[in-house]
Structures are given as structure tokens and as C-alpha cells.
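Lab notebook, bench 4. We co-purified these components, and the gel suggests they stay together. Before we commit to crystallization screens, I want a quick structural picture of the whole thing.
Request: model the full complex, all chains together.
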Amino acid sequence: MAMQAAEIERLIKEAFPDAEVTITDLAGDNDHYAAMIASSAFKGKTRVQQHQMVYDALKGRMGGVLHALSLQTTVKA
Amino acid sequence: MSVRDQITKEIAENDVVLYMKGTPVFPQCGFSSVAVQILSSLGVKFKAVDVLKDPDVRQGIKDFSNWPTIPQLYVKGEFVGGSDILREMYESDELAPFLAEKGIACQPAA
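Here is the predicted assembly.
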């Protein structure tokens, strides 16, 4: 099971049009990524809520097709 | 007892509960291992639940918190986060004060 980085970025930008997204392939196996996402949509949200918003953007792939996505979310001014 | 009731009971009866893959001594996943190391380094007593032992709990916990991955940390019945959030809170020195505020004793390693 795997997912392309570009696909992850596309889904995130679809949900957060203003997002700055940086995706790092941690293991070269299309299955372990780290993503840094800055978006104004995160404003006023807790970390848990911010990450849940990203998981929702990935439309159920997280924990399924995509095994590991280490998330770092920040609020974009 | 439904899985939801079981989880509700577990997180109500234990101050700190870590739903993980494997056990603290033998974590079966890197992310679970990170969570265990963080809690251990703060000297926090916690109840570990090995979700690999029960597929219903493994899925049930994800539904319970609307969080798709394991590990999951609960403090005083509240979902705190997975390993990313735990590590972020730890590295920014927010975790110990958060736990203290919840009345959880920490004995960081000397």
C-alpha cells in the first residue's frame, strides 16, 4: 500500500487552497512521509483539530493506504 | 460491553492511558515506541493497552476519537494526541506543565 507525495500534496491543497505544504519522503517507500502544512484555516484550532482537518482532507487514506504521515501544522498569518 | 463502553471505562478509571501497538517493553511500531519513551522520560505512570491484541479495540479507538492512527494518549479521559503531537508538546516543554495541570505526577529522570 502506498501513496505518491504529489497526491498527498494535491489533496491537502484542495482542502486548504492557501496552504504552504512541504512533504518529505522519510523512507523512500511511498509509505512514510512527514508533512509540514501552514494554513490560515488552522487559526484558533487546537493541534488535535488541526491534524484532524488534515486527515479529513486525505479522505480516509490515513491509517489505510497511507501508513505513516508525520504532521506538523502551523497557522499562516 | 461494547468497545465504546470498554474504552470509556478504561480512560475514566486510569489517569493516563496509552493505546499502542505492542507493550511498553516490546513496542511493535516506531510511533508507539516514541510515545512510550516520552512518557517514560517524564516518569509518568500510565496504563498501556495493546491494540494488536484486540482488532475491535484497534478500530474502536480510532472511531472513538475520530483519529485514524495509533498510538493515542488519553489523560484524565481527554484525548491528547498521537505521537506527533506528543513529541511536539514534549519538545516545546508543554507536556510536563500540561500533565501537572491535570494533576499527573511526573518524576523526570535525574
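Strands of chain A lie at 20-25, 32-39, 68-75. Worth comparing against the SEC data before the next meeting. Chain A has one domain: 5-75.
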